[in-house]
Amino acid sequence: xxxxxxxxxxxxxxxxxxxxxxxxxxxxxxxxxxxxxxxxxxxxxxxxxxxxxxxxxxxxxxxxxxxxxxxxxxxxxxxxxxxxxxxxxxxxxxxxxxxxxxxxxxxxxxxxxxxxxxxxxxxxxxxxxxxxxxxxxxxxxxxxxxxxxxxxxxxxxxxxxxxxxxxxxxxxxxxxxxxxxxxxxxxxxxxxxxxxxxxxxxxxxxxxxxxxxxxxxxxxxxxxxxxxxxxxxxxxxxxxxxxxxxxxxxxxxxxxxxxxxxxxxxxxxxxxxxxxxxxxxxxxxxxxxxxxxxxxxxxxxxxxxxxxxxxxxxxxxxxxxxxxxxxxxxxxxxxxxxxxxxxxxxxxxxxxxxxxxxxxxxxxxxxxxxxxxxxxxxxxxxxxxxxxxxxxxxxxxxxxxxxxxxxxxxxxxxxxxxxxxxxxxxxxxxxxxxxxxxxxxxxxxxxxxxxxxxxx
Length: 456
Fold this sequence. Notes:
Blueprint: H1 4-12, H2 37-58, H3 70-77, H4 79-82, E1 84-85, E2 98-101, E3 106-109, H5 114-123, H6 132-140, H7 144-154, E4 158-160, H8 164-169, H9 171-177, E5 183-186, E6 209-213, H10 218-228, E7 232-237, H11 245-251, E8 255-259, H12 266-273, E9 278-281, H13 287-290, H14 295-298, E10 303-308, H15 323-330, H16 332-336, H17 355-378, E11 382-387, H18 388-397, E12 416-419, E13 422-425
Parallel strand pairs: 6-7, 6-9, 7-8, 9-10, 10-11
Antiparallel strand pairs: 1-13, 2-3, 3-4, 5-11, 12-13
């Protein structure tokens, strides 16, 4: 079997899924960037589609041999640009999320969640009522390294914007670039007995149960992809940290939703995991274990998919992070920023989509499918790991940069689907005109503990 790295490169070269030739296509004006974002997007979805066909063949089902539609893939990766709630596009980033100029360099912050905003203001010694203007003044008086350290100590999210080479030479950058794009590791726990399913070629995962302990983009994209193939996915959120409304609606199609406090309702979670085939988690490395959640002990033989920002090793393994933050720290922001001839330093920019998130999600789903296949042979559990920074390092390592690219165009609205007040992107795979169902009411399943948040 080709590695995931090879699958992505095959798609870039036009080989396509399952060795089929693709019609000539432009690399995707919707994902135009200096870095080869289209290669990453198309390749990650191709890896997922190919893994799904391997699973179908292993189950005695007819493979689909997908031919990917570039416009459809680009729309899925840019879903926040298609999303509408009652006709309105959401604010993707909160007031205190974004680039700020420190005394000596740029920093990028992420404060979309209320608790991250509170931690950022505490790290900057600012009151809870502080505005973006207040933060701008305060950040300008501090060094970027100081801000980054303060944030790390307070559990806030802010990084110094680095150049590509500086990141590559750093211990955290070297850790991010090491290892495979998707790591699949076999555990010692075994004894798995597979239950019969009612799988079909379009729904090859029908009958399999997935617990989804993720939020934001990468993890929810992975579990949404598994739901597209028929898996029964139960999204679990913490009661004290409700999800951002539009984000939930944009990534939870085809799933069920519940609210469980792992700190106080561990027996409830144990009951849920006792019948699960797969668990996907997006907690920082070690966080679940500190809560007393050890999936392999609770359910020997389970496939555990794990997504993190920086990877599970290296000096930043325990830090929080998001796609935009990884772009800033790894050099992507400076690469994608336009140079202003009137100043000696380049400006900062970003990829035309949260491509590290989306690609990592499809790659994680592909790895989980392959872990399911190998588990059928020996009954042993697997850990499947992806990291946004590892996906970013792959993107940085590829040839074919286009610094003189045009501005990325908005995704084609023909690839959107509307249900009531909500418009979202259609699935990335053309064989599926829509998701199994729209995102459910937040926390609407059996184990709900709290009311849904605003906007849902």
